[in-house]
C-alpha cells in the first residue's frame, strides 16, 4: 500500500519561508509526476506545483517566482520551497503522486499539512 507523508507545515509571518517535504513509501515503482495542491477554507483544492521525473515543472500563476518544487527520485520524495509567503497562501497543502506524466497528478494523495501565514 502506498503512503505519501507530508511534513514541514506550520505557522509563519508574511514574508517568511517554509519548506514542505513529501515522502512516498510502500511503492515498488517510482512516480513519474509528483506535486502539491492546497485547499483553503471554503475554496476548492487547487494545484500549486507539479514536477515530472525528468524535472519538467508546472506552477500556479499565484506562486510563480515565490515557490520552487524539486524532487529526489531515488527517495521518491518531493519538496516545496515557499518564499515570500502571503496570508492568502494559508491552506492545507496536500502531496500527490501519479504513475504517468500529468499536469495534475492525482493517483495517490497524502493526508495534508497545514500552512498558516499571518499578516
H-E string: EEEEEEEEEEE
User: Any idea what the radius of gyration is?
Assistant: 13 Å
- How many helices? The count is 0
Q: Unreliable segments (pLDDT under 50, ≥5 consecutive)?
A: none
Strand content: over 45%
**Main sheet properties:** 7 strands, mixed
Can you count the beta strands?
A: 11
How confident overall, as mean pLDDT? 94
**Ends: how far apart?**
40 Å
Content-based structural category: mainly beta
Shape: globular
Compact overview of the structure:
With 119 residues, the protein is mainly β. Helices cover 0% and strands 52% of the residues.
How would you describe this protein?
The chain has 119 residues and is mostly beta strands. The chain has strands at residues 3-7, 10-13, 18-25, 33-39, 46-52, 57-59, 67-72, 77-82, 91-98, 108-109, 113-118. 0% of the residues lie in helices and 52% in strands. It is globular, with a radius of gyration of 13 Å.
Give the tags.
119 residues; mainly beta; 7-stranded mixed beta sheet; 4-stranded antiparallel beta sheet
How do the helices and strands line up, and which of them pair or pack?
Blueprint: E1 3-7, E2 10-13, E3 18-25, E4 33-39, E5 46-52, E6 57-59, E7 67-72, E8 77-82, E9 91-98, E10 108-109, E11 113-118
Amino acid at each position: 500500500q502506498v503512503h505519501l507523508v507530508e511534513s514541514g507545515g506550520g505557522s509563519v509571518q508574511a514574508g517568511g519561508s517554509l519548506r514542505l517535504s513529501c515522502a512516498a513509501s510502500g511503492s515498488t515503482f517510482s512516480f513519474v509526476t509528483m506535486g502539491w495542491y492546497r485547499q483553503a477554507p471554503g475554496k476548492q483544492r487547487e494545484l500549486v506545483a507539479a514536477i515530472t521525473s525528468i524535472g519538467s515543472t508546472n506552477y500556479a500563476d499565484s506562486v510563480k517566482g515565490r515557490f520552487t518544487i524539486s524532487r529526489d527520485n531515488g527517495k521518491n520524495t518531493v519538496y516545496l520551497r515557499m518564499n515570500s509567503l502571503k496570508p492568502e497562501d494559508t491552506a492545507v497543502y496536500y502531496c500527490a503522486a501519479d504513475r504517468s506524466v500529468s499536469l495534475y497528478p492525482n493517483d495517490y494523495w497524502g493526508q495534508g499539512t497545514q500552512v498558516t501565514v499571518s499578516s
